[in-house]
Each structure stands twice: as structure tokens, then as C-alpha cells.
Specification:
heterodimer; A: Rna Polymerase Sigma Factor, Chain: A; 9 helices
């Protein structure tokens, strides 16, 4: 597997198309954490996020021809779209969205110090506010702030223009700012 | 204020990653065989995906050559059209012939 370490994602995808399971394993190792985090931030459910990421990767292995190389397409941009669409579909089918689990892992970080407690409380409030944002605003915020995508890449994932993405981000930040001001955090 | 909001947003906690997820995915994939698309639509899509037009510079050079060749040809045709010696004038036609 070490021989593929320097291979790009797109190069690995070409190998996967020819049935190379080692290339697939490397791609899974390289990106599972990132896409799990992406799914979890959207659906706030551990089991659902695990299923979504597993499903996305298994579909990729089963039918790698869905990935179209060329025209400068990036694997991660395309796979973000796959994971996000799967997450939205799953949420709509199960109608299970509480955002409660998203708050659970914050509790684990409590160190007992007062400052840490304040930070944790702020994070809990922030998390619940983010989970209350409309779906597209939440996706835009997650992609740009937490997945490290540029505005252009995030717009590509959402299949909208850069201006549209900026508008979503602006509205998300405005409602977060208003809520945080109401809570006395800002 | 925006900077403070950004700062708070950046502090958002990272979700904990399930350690066995990678192994689960890899193991599950071993039981799945790959599908090869052989549909008509798939063939058309892959045909156009693999169809690359030549570099613009080659296209331009080709058009220039084509233009030069046809330019000469057209010039010859133009000269032929304006060679008055080939024009035939019916001298015998007069106004009364038309009346």
C-alpha cells in the first residue's frame, strides 16, 4: 500500500476503476474521518453518520464509473456532494433529526476547570444554534468553516453560484450572531 | 463583532471518530464485486468523456492552412470571373428585338 501513498485521490480512483482494492483501502483510510465529520455535523447522529459514510464508500467501490475524471474535477468535491446528498436523503426518509447527539461529545471534554466549563457551555449553545439553521445554510457553513473548502468548491458541492453561497453564509452568520447576542455571548 | 463570531465558530468541537469505521468499510467492500456499466447511455457518456479535441493552436494552424489553400482557389475563381475576354455580348440584340 505504501507504493500508493503519494498517489493523488484522482489517481487512486483510476486504479479503483480497474478493480484495485488496495487503492480503495488507501482512499478509505485517507478520507473516512473527514467525511464522517461532515455527515455527523449535518445529521448529529453517530450511527447514521457511520452508515452514511460506509454506504457512500461501498457504492463508490461497487460502481466506480460514477466518478468522472477530467475537466479538473476533484474527487473530494464530488464525494462531499455524494455524502451530503446521502445525508439529506437519509434525514428525509427517517425524519429523525434532533441534533441532541451533537451536544453529547462536548460534555466529554469537561476538565473541571471553570474556564473550560464556560467554553463548553458556549460550544453547547453554538452547536444547538447551528443545528437549528435551515438545511442549506447549515451545509454552507459546515463546508466553508469546518471542511476547509473554498467558497468556489463549496458552491460546486451545493451546485449553486459563488454569490448564492455567500448569501447563504451571510444569512447563517447573521442569525447566529443575533442568537449569540441574545444569549449574551457576543 | 464578525471576527469574534468567526473565532467562536472556529472553536466548535470536533466530532469523535469511531476507530473501527475504516476497518468495517474495507472488510464490507471485500464481499462486494464491482459493477461495470455497459448501458448505451454509459457508453455514450464514456465516449464523450474520452473524446478530446486537439489543442487550440493545432486547430488554428489547420484553419490557417485551410484558409491559405482555399484563399488561392478563390482568388483564381475571382480572376476567372473578372476576365472580360470570356464575356459574350450579343451585338445583334437591339431594342427592337425586345419589342
Amino acid at each position: 500500500m505504501a507504493m500508493y501513498e503519494k498517489e493523488t485521490d484522482e489517481g487512486l480512483m483510476e486504479r479503483i476503476k480497474s478493480g484495485d482494492h488496495q487503492a480503495f483501502s488507501l482512499l478509505v483510510r485517507r478520507h473516512t474521518q473527514r467525511f464522517y465529520a461532515c455527515a455527523f455535523r449535518l445529521c448529529a447522529c453517530r450511527n447514521m453518520s457511520e452508515d452514511i459514510v460506509q454506504d457512500a464508500f461501498l457504492k463508490l467501490w461497487e460502481n466506480p464509473d460514477r466518478w468522472k475524471s477530467g475537466k479538473g474535477a476533484q474527487f473530494t468535491t464530488w464525494f462531499y456532494r455524494v455524502v451530503i446528498n446521502l445525508t439529506i436523503d437519509t434525514l428525509r426518509k427517517t425524519k429523525k433529526y434532533s441534533g441532541i447527539e451533537a451536544l453529547d461529545y462536548i460534555k466529554d471534554n469537561v476538565s473541571g476547570q471553570e474556564e473550560q466549563l464556560v467554553i463548553n457551555e458556549q460550544q453547547r449553545i453554538l452547536e444547538s444554534m447551528i443545528q437549528k439553521l435551515p438545511e442549506r445554510q447549515r451545509i454552507a457553513l459546515n463546508l466553508c468553516f469546518y471542511e476547509g473548502l473554498s467558497n468556489k468548491e463549496a458552491a460546486g458541492v451545493l451546485k449553486i453560484g459563488v454569490k448564492g453561497l455567500e448569501s447563504l453564509l451571510m444569512r447563517a452568520k447573521k442569525s447566529l450572531r443575533d442568537d449569540l447576542q441574545r444569549q449574551g455571548i457576543l | 463583532m464578525i471576527d469574534l463570531l468567526d473565532k467562536i465558530l472556529r472553536k466548535r468541537a470536533e466530532p469523535q471518530f469511531p476507530v473501527n469505521l475504516v476497518a468495517n468499510i474495507i472488510n464490507a467492500s471485500k464481499n462486494i464485486s464491482q459493477q461495470k456499466s455497459c448501458s448505451y447511455n454509459g457508453w455514450i457518456i464514456s465516449f464523450f468523456d474520452n473524446l478530446f479535441l486537439p489543442q487550440p493552436a493545432f486547430v488554428l494552424a489547420f484553419l490557417l492552412l485551410l484558409g491559405t489553400f482555399f484563399g488561392f482557389e478563390l482568388e483564381n475563381a475571382y480572376m476567372f470571373e473578372h476576365d472580360l475576354s470570356i464575356l459574350y455580348i450579343e451585338d445583334s440584340l437591339e431594342l427592337r428585338d425586345w419589342l
